[in-house]
Amino acid sequence: MENKTICPNFFNNVMNDSFGVYKTCCLHVPLKDNKVVGVPVSEDLNVFWNSEYMKQSRLKALNGEEIKGCEECYRSEKNGGTSLRKDLVEIYEDDDEYNERLKLASENGGHLNKFPSALELRVGNLCNLKCRMCQPQDSDLINKEYKELISIDNSLSTILPVVDFEISDDLTNYIQSIKNNASEIKVIRFSGGEPLINKSFYELLDFLIENRFAEGIEFRLNTNLTKMKEDTLEKLSKFKKVTIDFSIDGLESVYEYIRYPMVWDVTKTKLNMTHSFMRKYENIKMNANFTVQIYNIFSMFDLVDFFLSRSMLPILHILQNPSYLNIRNMPDNLKQDVVAKIDETLATIDEKGYMDKFQVEWVSERLRAIKNQMSLDRNEFQIDLFKKFTNALDVKRNQNISIMIPEIAKYYE
Q1: Which one of 63, 83, 116 terminates a domain?
Q2: What is the DSSP string of 330-390?
Q3: Is-contact 36 77, C-beta < 8 A?
Q4: Residue 311, H or E segment
Q5: Per-residue pLDDT for 281 more than 60?
Q6: Is the pTM of this model over 0.85?
Q7: What is the distance of C-alpha 361 from the center of its chain?
Q8: Is 266 part of a structural domain of the chain?
Q9: 96 is in which domain, residue-wise?
Q10: Does the pLDDT of residue 93 top 70, yes or no?
Q11: Predicted confidence band at 163 (pLDDT cuts at 50, 70, 90)?
């Protein structure tokens, strides 16, 4: 019988979150007795890796019991969608080392004497963009903007979260743990904020190259791509394998509306430069991270075509929060028109001549999951919040949804 709770991240992966504690993935909230269990990154990584919380969580996962803090994946699956957990299970189910880790944890009360094989470093919330669906803990510019908006209209405090404490980008001890165990690491991922404007990124990159660990490590980078340089790409080429997951969320005016204040032509130039390196080096590949939300639900189809035609996988993530940008809370007539467009795309996608059939199948599955998400009942109140949020940012940023994304604006008139 399928185990519907087991997740490879509890056996393979560690990351830090924006609040300075260790966890197993970006969606995971470590909870025990309904309280957050946080081991700060100022501690040695092993304090978290074999903490009582992690040992008990591994045993629960092995026994098919749900783990508190993993509700995001469980909820998505119960609603008929896919999830990060399911994606990882598919990736690792035939991996011998992963299955050995399951065996060791089962035999040793959840304890694992193997260092994590995959690590992610979130380098604080320093960022050069303030994307509409992003949160203050991931962008210092958004945090500043939200505070300014609330000072003008206090009623916005109910929908604009702010961070009132410093989010540190000091990863000294975390990075030292990685350096000490670099020979055991198979995968390292950097995310942010924006890694390419953070000194920790370059410090670890240089260490792994200079000490010849790079050739045995898969390096993954989450970036908005706007600060990418050729010399950085040359360094990345030294790794065994490189995956650049760049956030895009739309093309042209939709991109500029969501990923403020960046200009599409600048990003397109960076995209073309990075794509040329991908063609030059066989160990570099690129994926387009696309956060599916109300603003870009129609531009999604052009973006899928844009990247599949370039043999780059458009990874369609369904935004869950904030709820007022969640596609389940769109007006019914908008949902109906999007469903019709998805059905048309699914019926014709095999005729487009895209080279990578795996990418086509992957995107098709995601489009079906998006249909399932839209089939969920909406919260009418969220439509009003969408209008309030959109108007507040439009005024602050001197933008206008009716001009920049008229195909969405008309459904909210």
Answers
A1: 116
A2: S-HHHHHHHHHHHHHHHHHGGGS--S-HHHHHHHHHHHHHHHHHHTSPP-HHHHHHHHHHH
A3: no
A4: none
A5: yes
A6: yes
A7: 21
A8: yes
A9: 9-116
A10: yes
A11: confident
Please state the separation of Cα 316 from the chain's center in Å. 10
Q: Which residues contact 274 (CB under 8 A, 6 or more apart)?
A: 225, 228, 233, 244, 246, 286
d(CA 246, CA 224): 5
Q: What does DSSP assign to residue 21? A: B
Q: For residue range 34-92, what is the model confidence (pLDDT) as tens digits?
A: 555 678 888 888 899 999 989 999 999 999 999 888 888 888 888 777 788 988 999 89
Predicted pLDDT at 35: 57
Instruction: List 187's β-bridge partners, or say none.
Output: 118, 218
CB atoms within 10 A of CB 166: 10
Structural domain contains residue 351: yes
Give per-residue pLDDT as tens, 115-156. Answer: 999 999 988 888 999 999 999 988 999 999 999 999 999 999
Residue in 190, 195, 239, 246 with CA at minimum distance from that of residue 218: 239
- Counted residue by residue, the chain has a size of 413
- Same-domain status, 180 and 302: yes
Closest to 328 (Cα-Cα) out of 315, 338, 340, 343? 338
Q: Report H helices in 93-180.
A: 96-107, 140-152, 172-180
Residue type, 90: E
> Within a domain: residue 177?
yes
Question: HSE-up of 126 (CA within 13 Å, CB side)?
Answer: 13
Whole-angstrom distance, CA of residue 220 vs CA of residue 239:
10
- Asked if residue 3 belongs to a domain, the reply is no
